[in-house]
Specification:
The two termini are 29 Å apart. The longest helix is centred in the middle third of the chain and has 30 residues. Helix 2 packs parallel to helix 7 and helix 5 runs antiparallel to helix 6. It is built from 11 helices and 12 strands. It folds into 3 domains: 203 residues; 91 residues, Elongation Factor Tu (Ef-tu), domain 3; 133 residues, Nucleotide-binding domain of ferredoxin-NADP reductase (FNR) module (Rossmann fold), CATH 3.40.50.80. Helix 8 links the parallel strand 7 and strand 8. With 445 residues, the chain is of the alpha/beta class. The chain has a 6-stranded antiparallel β-sheet with strand order 4-3-6-1-2-5, with no helix packed on it. A 6-stranded parallel β-sheet has the order 10-9-8-7-11-12, sandwiched between helices. 45% of the residues lie in helices and 17% in strands.
Amino acid sequence: MRTQRILQAIFWIAVYIALALAPLLLLLIGPKSPRQGFWQLLSVALGFAGLAMMALQFVLTARFKTLKAPYGSDIVYHFHRQISLVAFALVLAHPLILFVADPRTLGLLNFVTAPWRARAAVAATLLLIILIALSLWRKQIGLDYTPWRVSHGILGALILILAMIHVILVGIYINTPLKEILWTVYGAIWIVLLLYVRILKPLLLLRKPYEVEQVVQERGNAWSLSIKPVGHAGMRFMPGQFAWLTFGRSPFSETEHPFSFSSSAVQTNPITFTIKELGDFTRTIKELPAGQRVYLDGPFGIFSIDHYPDASSFVFIAGGIGIVPLMCMLRTVAERGDDTRPLLLIYAADNWEGVTFREELEALTQRLKQLKVVYVLRNPPENWQGESGYVTKELLARYLPSAREPHSFEVILCGPQPLMDAVERDLVQLGVFIGNFHAEQFNLV
């Protein structure tokens, strides 16, 4: 299974590189303007690369399970964020090089007197700057997720339309049949993706609605939302995966958020998500009434113990609400009666009262004789006999299995980014094979 995923990952990387470089290769085909020197050609090449990468952003966020399967959704979204900055730099380099190589081209910035090809380029660049700024500083400026998501999609579409208008009006870059075919294909891909994401997928979700069964308060300022299928068999998922939830009368709504399953993957009716009050939308979870219509897009993610069926043991490390996908895994193991291999859970929390699923975890240690739970509290109560402070290298060394050979055990890690970064660094220093630990990021958007 590992080898298959590696081969799939290599294949999709090769496809991405090919699609990103295709416009550059076609620059070599067909007649060229005698006025274009090295710097002009370099400028155009960088602009084309940036434009192609921007177009591919729509593919990365379209939630194609086959594409994301080798990496996991969190890795794909992280790549989406980082590569957008690279594409932005390439697009910005396109006019800057022209301005330096030929200062007379600065006149193209005059929106009143410039030709339409330049106006389209300037407008696209300004909108791209706005899109990047809103994405980087959304939380700092207090922009809620839903309006940001709507504006992000609109701005992205406008940028690509204006960029294509610029390419068409310049003319020289579509002066051969092969170039025309290339840009027609790119345009068709964008249109198909838009129709798929905005129309076809919501229509498919509309045929399989869910409704809220109940909302139960948990420790740690979290709420467990249980939903049941309406008129269909429901959804099967692997323990540790997540889904996108849309609340309301229609799946065409923009109020869509990703949450990890917390219920067992064996008993999937109802399906439960446990959600901590962290932001504008999550504060409203507790107010959802029974019978509220819900739509579910998923499952997604490769963060699951089911990908490692031959593991001799598992070490789960959770921080705060990062316990949710790990709880899904533990509940599934218990439901399956899989008590044949050691299971260790190291659970870091702020205080004892805020340990989500505390009572159930204690009960699970009775059902799963091989399960050991270690709590690490930053603010422990008086007379606390357990671990306190943070999950350190010394703490990990005390509890990890002594055998550190590749694939001797699998580490499943989920929690706040600082905790995951520190634990991953410590695991490497303790000699744990890097292919043995698997983490999931919280921030998908």
